[in-house]
Amino acid sequence: MKILVCISKTPDTTAKVTFTANNTKFAEEGVQWIINPYDEWYALVRAIELKESGIVSAIHLITVGIADCDPIIRKALALGGDEAIRINVNSQDSFYIASQIAAVAKEGNYDLVLTGKETIDYNGSAIGGMVAALLEWPFISHATQLVLENSQATLVKEIEGGEQTDQVQLPIVVSCQKGMAEQRIPNMKGIMGARTKPLTVREPVAADSFTSFVHFDLPAVKAGVKLVSADHPEELVRLLHEEAKVI
User: Fold this and answer.
1) DSSP one-letter string for 46-91
2) Dist. CA 112–CA 58, nearest whole Å
3) Using CA atoms, how far apart are residues 103 and 100, in angstroms rounded to an integer?
4) Alpha-carbon distance 146 to 159, whole Å?
5) How would you classify the pairing of strands 172-176 and 199-202?
6) pTM greater than 0.85 (yes/no)
7) How would DSSP label each residue in 106-135?
């Protein structure tokens, strides 16, 4: 059984967000880049667990991005991926990216495609569903548990007021969220081994792009807080009547 895990490069969660070119581009200077946490902690680590259990024979990674993605790909290989594929194009269009992933999945004879539920930069949460549609495979989103047995997957996801369990025949696409696995840290053996694991660079297939970023805005600066003494409740009432805003 083979798994294709989708990973993407995102800014570290502590990065300061600023924009350039008249607020049309994210300012990348000085930013520390990481594997998208949902891809790494949940999708990739769950794939590694399944391989360690003997159910899965190979874990392949796929990234759609240019050469500056290679360091995060090598980290994913150090964690436990067997080989990686990088589609050599820089795009933020979800359909275009999904088309590149689907093209690789079609020819690779994979049983399972795993993604994180979303990326932490744009929070689109669209790639998994689009890949499944392009492949004409079932799609389970926001899964918190995944068990494989023969050619069937049992998945659990959170729903309003409880949990839902699905049983689906492979092949399928699954987006993963918190609960699927626990974060791991690459060990020295994995780091050294990742240097020699295959990383294949491919040119993109022809595909449509439907979206582009026009403008970015930072959230409004938070207003200050007014403290009212407990000895002056009338002042609190006045502020609530005259200055408080309903959001």
Assistant:
1) HHHHHHHTTS-SEEEEEEES-GGGHHHHHHHHHHT-SEEEEE----
2) 11
3) 5
4) 16
5) unpaired
6) yes
7) HHHT-SEEEEES--TTT----HHHHHHHHH
10: which DSSP letter? E
Q: Which residues contact 193 (CB under 8 A, 6 or more apart)?
A: 77, 78
**Cis amide bond preceding 198, omega within 30:** no
R_g of the chain, CA atoms, integer Å = 22
Instruction: Residue 78: give the domain boundaries.
Output: 2-218
- Residues shown for the chain: 247
- Spatial neighbors of 144 by CB under 8 A, at least 6 apart, are 156, 157, 158, 163, 176, 177, 178, 179, 180
N- to C-terminal Cα separation, the chain: 51
pLDDT tens-digit profile of 140-151?
Answer: 999 999 999 989
Which residues on adjacent β-strands are paired with residue 25?
Answer: 20
Q: Please check whether residue 235 lies inside any domain of the structure.
A: no
Say which CATH number the domain at 187 has: 3.40.50.620
pLDDT digits (tens, 9 = 90+) for 121-179: 988 999 999 999 999 999 999 999 999 998 999 999 999 999 999 999 999 999 999 99
Please state, in angstroms and rounded to a whole number, the distance separating the CA atoms of residues 194 and 59. 13
Q: SS3 of 241, please?
A: helix
Q: How many structural domains are present in the chain?
A: 1
Is residue 11 in a domain? Answer: yes
